[in-house]
Design brief:
It is an enzyme of class 2 (transferase). Its EC number is 2.5.1.129. It catalyses: dimethylallyl phosphate + FMNH2 = prenylated FMNH2 + phosphate. Residues 16-25 have a biased composition (Low complexity). The protein has one domain: Rossmann fold (3-Layer(aba) Sandwich). The longest helix is centred in the last third of the chain and has 16 residues, at 208-223. It has helices spanning 23-26, 50-62, 73-83, 92-100, 138-146, 152-162, 178-189, 208-223, 239-243, and strands at 40-44, 67-71, 109-113, 130-136, 167-171, 193-194. The chain is of the alpha/beta class. The protein binds flavin mononucleotide. Residues 45-48, 72, 74-75, 77-78, 81, 137-140, 151, 172-173 line the site of flavin mononucleotide (FMN). Flavin mononucleotide (FMN) is lined by residues 45-48, 72, 74-75, 77-78, 81, 137-140, 151, 172-173.
Length: 244
């Protein structure tokens, strides 16, 4: 099975936004009425760290935030490697639900194919709260910084930067080369918040889930989304360890 390819659906996913059916298409029409749906565009790229992506998605959903999800071709490989799970375009809702452990029936999550350059998030006129790339490959960081638009994730990142919306990138590569660092600096200078996938251990984390949630919480902090994913520092040395 080639899990990196779409599924023979002939282009459009069986589930997910259609040109006529997406909520984003139904609200702010030519009458100029405000579109009630303003999602976070979340791009998952092929860096190690699918756990971080799942935790961020859960955090956004639990906060009641609408999400437009894009999964790169390479991210399907890291997802399979790290979790044994697939995200198939035609079955994204079931696949993502099983992966992140959240029922999506009542969550406001839409899905765009990574090769769909005509998708909503490819345009600055498409309403979005901002963009989060988690985890972000060195390739995606370079592509967004340079405006390569190799796929919809890179395009959406660049679009949200040019629209001066919040952009959070979570690079995961080590050690960093000079070009990696240069691209991250360019993203920072363009207005992005760079949140390297480097968890801290001052919040009393005892297991992997808590380590992952700490980083997901810092990513949501950078986006300005409320959550209770980790114990914030309160100025008492060792208190988190005592409480854990
Ligand atoms: C199992 C696996 C783990 C990978 N981990 C990383 C990583 O941590 N960081 C990174 O920059 N690239 C990583 N890569 C390489 C990227 O997937 C590759 O550069 C890809 O072209 C990125 O494409 P994308 O940015 O469109 O997802 C990994 C690849 C595989 C198969």
């Amino acid at each position: 099975m080639d899990t990196t390819q779409s599924d023979g659906s002939g282009g459009r996913p069986a589930e997910g936004p259609s040109r006529s059916g997406s909520p984003s298409q139904s609200g702010g029409g030519s009458d100029g009425a405000p579109d009630p749906r303003v999602p976070w565009v979340v791009g998952i790229t092929g860096a190690s760290g699918s756990l971080y992506a799942a935790a961020v998605l859960r955090g956004l959903i639990d906060a009641g935030e609408p999400v437009d999800l894009i999964v790169s071709k390479a991210a399907r490989l890291t997802l399979i490697d790290e979790t044994g799970r697939s995200v198939r375009d035609a079955h994204w809702k079931d696949d993502v639900s099983a992966w992140i452990g959240r029922e999506l029936a009542h969550a406001d999550v839409e899905y765009w194919r990574a090769d769909d350059f005509a998708a909503g998030p490819s345009s600055g006129s498409y309403r979005a709260k901002g963009f989060i790339a988690v985890p972000a490959t060195a390739a995606a960081c370079a592509g967004i910084a340079l405006g390569l638009s190799k796929d919809l994730i890179q395009r959406a990142g660049e679009v949200n930067l040019k629209e001066r919306r919040p952009v959070v990138v979570v690079p995961r590569e080590t050690p960093a080369s000079r070009s990696h660092l240069q691209h991250l600096l360019e993203l920072h200078d363009a207005g992005a918040v760079v949140v390297p996938a480097t968890p801290a251990f001052y919040a009393g984390s005892r297991d992997l889930d808590q380590v992952v949630d700490f980083l997901a919480g810092r990513i949501l902090d950078a986006a300005g989304v409320e959550h209770g994913l980790y114990r914030r520092w309160k100025g008492d040395l060792g208190a988190a360890r005592d409480d854990a």
